[in-house]
Amino acid sequence: MEKYLQHQQELHHVFIDFKKAFDRDWHEALWLTMRKYNINSNLISVIENLYNKATSAVFCNNNIVDWLRTTVGVRQGCLLSPTLFNIFLKRIMTDALGDHFGTVSIGGRSVTNLRFADDIDGLARNECELASLVKRLDKALSNFGMRLVLKKPKIMTNSKESSKKEIKANGQILEM
């Protein structure tokens, strides 16, 4: 961002977090994604078996009243969970931005986003590009039963001109 400020170039960010991202992975889509990325089929089978046998207990008055099969989400506290989520997130980002070439350059490389865990910083040189990035990401997320957290997405810019474009996700205007 400092380089863009030094050269008086606009840089726009949208900070995105996923609503309960680790609870929303769709297992079948995760297995298909792992196969798409040519992950060893034996490893996929082991992980599938681990997840197919996953159950959750329903407690009432300190007693287990029911057991339910878990069909969404990654296992809390499991060492594999962050990796599985990152595989799934890569698929979402590829689907959303695969043919989108960003205009932001970092170290001579075109960059559309920066990611850490379930947080994404979408980058654009202008508001129209940023709006397109949000729209593409929102659509890709909805294809997998996920959605943007509307309380958290924030837009930040170094532009000296006031924003004229409304950027929306799930029909709601994102906060500047």
TrEMBL record:
InterPro entries: DNA/RNA_pol_sf (IPR043502), RT_dom (IPR000477). Pfam families: RVT_1. Residues 1-174 form the Reverse transcriptase domain. It comes from the Eukaryota. PANTHER family: REVERSE TRANSCRIPTASE DOMAIN-CONTAINING PROTEIN, RIBONUCLEASE H. This is Retrovirus-related Pol polyprotein from type-1 retrotransposable element R2. It comes from Elysia marginata.
